């Protein structure tokens, strides 16, 4: 169950990163509130996952989901630039996440 909590925490990290961008520096109340709620939920679920997962594994996977997820949302929703170098960087992050998961005993 810890892995499910970690996955949801990572997805919520993407949500709060996106809504923080949409909040325009916390000047848009609706997006600001969504950001804060998603942040709190993400941190809460991460802390629950860390009860049984190693710190290095949990934190690395959480930040990796957030980084790659924000990259994908930036491209798909915000029209950010797609370049071979950016795609290569995302592939390296995902490769690191897979290796981290495979190396975990939990």
From TrEMBL:
Q: Could you tell me the keywords of this UniProt record?
A: Cell membrane, Membrane, Transmembrane, Transmembrane helix, Transport
- Chain ranges passing through the membrane: 33-50, 57-79, 85-102
| Location of the protein in the cell | Cell membrane
Q: Does the keyword Aminoacyl-tRNA synthetase apply?
A: no
Question: Its membrane topology, per UniProt?
Answer: Multi-pass membrane protein
Task: Write down the superkingdom of origin.
Answer: Bacteria
Q: Name one Pfam family in it.
A: Multi_Drug_Res
Give a yes or no for keyword Secreted in this entry: no
Which protein family is named in the record? Belongs to the drug/metabolite transporter (DMT) superfamily. Small multidrug resistance (SMR) (TC 2.A.7.1) family. Gdx/SugE subfamily.
Q: Can you say what this protein is called?
A: Guanidinium exporter
Q: Which organism is it from?
A: Comamonas terrae
């Amino acid at each position: 169950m810890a892995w499910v909590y970690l996955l949801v925490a990572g997805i919520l990290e993407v949500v709060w990163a996106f809504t923080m961008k949409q909040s325009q520096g916390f000047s848009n109340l609706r997006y600001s509130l969504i950001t804060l709620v998603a942040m709190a939920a993400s941190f809460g679920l991460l802390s629950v996952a860390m009860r049984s997962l190693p710190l290095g594994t949990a934190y690395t996977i959480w930040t990796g989901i957030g980084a790659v997820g924000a990259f994908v949302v930036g491209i798909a929703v915000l029209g950010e630039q797609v370049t071979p170098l950016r795609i290569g960087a995302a592939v390296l992050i995902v490769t690191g996440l897979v290796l981290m998961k495979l190396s975990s005993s939990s």
